Amino acid sequence: MTNSMSKAVEVLKSFNPFVEEIDDREIKISLSNDKVISALDVLKSIGFSHLSLITCVDWIDDNQFELVYILFNWEDGGKILVSTRIDRSNPKFITVKELWPVARFYEREIHEFFGIEFEGNDDMRPLFLELWDEKPPMRKDFDPSKYSKEKFPDRKYEKDVIKEAKIFRGEING
């Protein structure tokens, strides 16, 4: 664990985190929703100034989404993943664009692909899926086959698995 990561774990003890060491330069800190914004602010103030990414995991069986904030410390290369879970049936969280302005784009992407609202971020315009009118496509309950058949009814969706296997094995050119 890098010095910056050790310091972060020490400073965040009062937040009651669950800390998981992934490798020498990466840890995951899981927090309750009400502590995430304050913890991110603290981490930024002690050198984790770079927000590399915000991502989301759909835990459909648990009826939850997991938001993961990936922070980087340029001084010693430490990386911290700050994680929290939110209710999948009412997917809302607070924006972090005041801490990191670039977060507005990550939040827009998560909104577009998972349907999560970020309170305080009023720019939820689509980044990639213009005119999308279906369930967000990265949710595990989105059915891409059903979507394709409804949106493109004239296309045939037949798959030649034998040919695909031969291409995969290099027996024929694709």
Description of the structure:
By secondary structure, the protein is α/β, with parallel strands linked by helices. It has one domain (3-139): Beta Polymerase, domain 2 (2-Layer Sandwich). The chain is built from five helices and seven strands, in the order αββαββββαβαα. The protein has helices at residues 3-11, 33-45, 103-114, 144-151, 161-169; strands at residues 18-23, 26-30, 50-59, 64-72, 79-87, 92-94, 117-119. The strands form two sheets. The protein has a five-stranded mixed sheet with strand order 1-2-5-4-3, covered by helices on one side. A two-stranded parallel ribbon has the order 6-7. β6, α3 (103-114) and β7 (117-119) form a beta-alpha-beta unit. The chain starts with a helix and ends in a 5-residue tail after the last helix. The relative contact order is 0.12. The mean pLDDT is 92.
Oligomer: single chain
List the domain count as a whole number.
1
Would you give the CATH topology? Answer: Beta Polymerase, domain 2
Instruction: Quickly count the helices.
Output: 5
Gyration radius, rounded: 20 Å
Helix content: 25-40%
Number of strands: 7
Q: Can you lay out the helices and strands and say which pair or pack?
A:
Blueprint (H helix, E strand, L loop, with lengths): L2 H9 L6 E6 L2 E5 L2 H13 L4 E10 L4 E9 L6 E9 L4 E3 L8 H12 L2 E3 L24 H8 L9 H9 L5
Parallel strand pairs: 2-5, 6-7
Antiparallel strand pairs: 1-2, 3-4, 4-5
